[in-house]
Amino acid sequence: MKVVVDFSICDLHGLCVEAAPEVFEIGDDGALRVLNETPEQGLRAKVDKAVRECPTGAISIEE
Amino acid sequence: MLRRITIVGASLAGLRAAETLRDRGFDGELTLVGDEPHRPYDRPPLSKQVLQGTWEPEQTFFRKKDGYAALALDMRLGVRARSVDLRAKRVALADGTLADYDRLIIATGARVRTLPGIRPRAGLLVLRSLDDAIALGRELMHATRVAIVGAGFIGLEVAASCRARGLDVTVIEALPVPLFHILGPTLCDMIAAMHRDHGVDLRTGVTVTDVIGESRAAGLVLSDGSRVEADVVVVGIGVTPNTEWLEGSGLTLDNGIVCDGYGEAAPHVYAAGDVARVANRWHGDSPRIEHWTNAVEQAVHAAENALAGPEASTSFSSVPYFWSDQYDRKIQFIGRARPHDEVVIVDGSLDDRRLTALFRRGDRVVACLAVNQPRALIKYRKLLASGAAWEAAISGTAVS
After folding, report:
1. What is the mean pLDDT of each run of 10 residues along chain B (400 residues)?
2. Which residues of B touch A11 (CB under 8 A)?
3. Cβ B381–A52 below 8 Å, yes or no?
4. Domain boundaries, chain B
5. Do A14 and B296 touch (CB under 8 A)?
């Protein structure tokens, strides 16, 4: 899977960082970063949670 | 064998439950029933982007029409659920059709309260649904003065959006300060001052006794005898859970559907979102919560437990979260505060209206409010989730 973030609509709620800290981070500059764009399948449930919980729908998964 | 799952309620919680069921491999019949004619849409933008006119209403839809094929839903929109027979495992719909189920997820949400004793008329509006937002947006195009009843989050967001449109805004609130029961006195004063600085005429400690105007609302009469003239009146005084259709079903109804920590209201019956009262292990209580993130979390949890069955079910534990966008401020709140918890501002200031505040009860930190400080919130969310002591939270601030 490939994690895609639409940074133009990211609103920094930070729920993805809580759901999948292996994949998402908010840096010292206050911007969201994708740490791992192609996480292994074992992280699927966590990334799914990040997608579901993003209030602006900024995260999607490409297979 | 699980063959049929029915979800009643086609808003955020209903949709997320359906998505989760398919994600987890459920390939049986999945029915999604919704009383509104629209496919599922997102409510938070209604009071902001849609009302300010920066979004078309269609932009609130979670999925495009063709985005539903992958979910393989039997989607029944524009039809209300009338009753449920728990023994027969069958939901009766208002159009006379039935929906049988092996598992039922109820996410029928809530509806707005209206002013008691006041008859409906033109120019007297509410904001809950997409149709409400379209109707209100249309009214605002011809208005110059708006009166808003209720300074809750909806009322305050509508006020900010109306100010963005250049309208004169008066807000009426029965309590002495807005949001007192959620934020406590110090932070409420900051919110009130923010609205007044943006030109809102915020009148607190008064109630509405009447609406002026026979065929069309032309303003309000207040309990202090004063009058507020307005072209449009918006009422935002809270919501009532949609449980009437469940009366006599055998489910426990008490300001919502009472559920255990597994999200179960009865064997094989789950509830999620604004209509549900799910026991939350994090604070040990089962309040009814009307926030976006709660709807998602409970829906995912209910769907997973519905598939897992009683032996493999997990109990619900979540640090509550909500946010509100007003003017150029993002207000984010995690945890659960009471009005008389001690509040300490650990970063920023009330004057700047950019701050992080922690709420203390005994030796625990129980909540965190951040205004335009999203990073702080992520840090304290972790601390709250782990049940951190007050001293640890405060010293954590000192370290970073």
Report:
1. 95 98 96 98 97 95 94 98 98 97 98 95 98 97 97 97 98 93 90 97 97 97 98 98 98 98 98 98 95 98 96 96 96 93 95 95 94 89 88 66
2. 330
3. no
4. 4-111+239-312, 114-235, 328-399
5. no
